[in-house]
Design goal:
Blueprint (H helix, E strand, L loop, with lengths): L23 E9 L5 E9 L5 E9 L5 E5 L17 E10 L2 E11 L5 E12 L2 E4 L12
Antiparallel strand pairs: 1-2, 2-3, 3-4, 5-6, 6-7, 7-8
């Protein structure tokens, strides 16, 4: 099945009943499920503490773009206190390689003088709804070079 890009408009709105999607729905990444009309859409939402979280919805493009499923929790936990992603995770990108599904994301850390700092994080999926980080550190270290 081949699809051509078409703007769909609003697919999902924030929902106070979903922990990772309480106040905002933002950047996303869509991935086709097999050769079906189903797509998993990884979305950056915000929790009730204004922290970005990545969750997942499944939509059916052949059934009026209906939402088939919404993950009850975020697929990736926030980082430990002091880590580059302690304040949020967002902007998901999924890459499949070596029979594994990899997640790259932006990790957020609140600053004092600078409002926030952003670094690239990397995780690998354990299953369809859960990813684990490869490291507590970002992919690229800060440097003067």
């Amino acid at each position: 099945m081949t699809f051509q890009w078409q703007k769909l408009g609003l697919i999902i709105q924030p929902n106070t009943q979903i922990s990772w999607l309480k106040t905002h729905a933002g950047s996303s990444f869509a991935q086709q499920v097999g050769h079906s009309s189903l797509f998993d859409v990884y979305i950056s939402g915000r929790d009730n503490h204004n922290r970005s979280r990545i969750g997942k919805i499944r939509i059916d493009l052949e059934n009026n773009n209906s939402i088939v499923d919404v993950s009850s929790g975020a697929i990736l936990e926030l980082g430990d206190v002091g880590c580059f992603d302690e304040s949020g995770t967002s902007y998901p990108v999924i890459i499949e390689a070596n029979s594994k599904k990899h997640l790259y994301y932006c990790g957020w850390q609140q600053g004092l003088i600078t409002p926030f700092m952003v670094s690239l994080g990397s995780a690998v999926f354990l299953n369809d709804n859960e990813a684990v980080k490869r490291s507590k550190a970002p992919v690229f270290a800060k440097t003067n070079d």
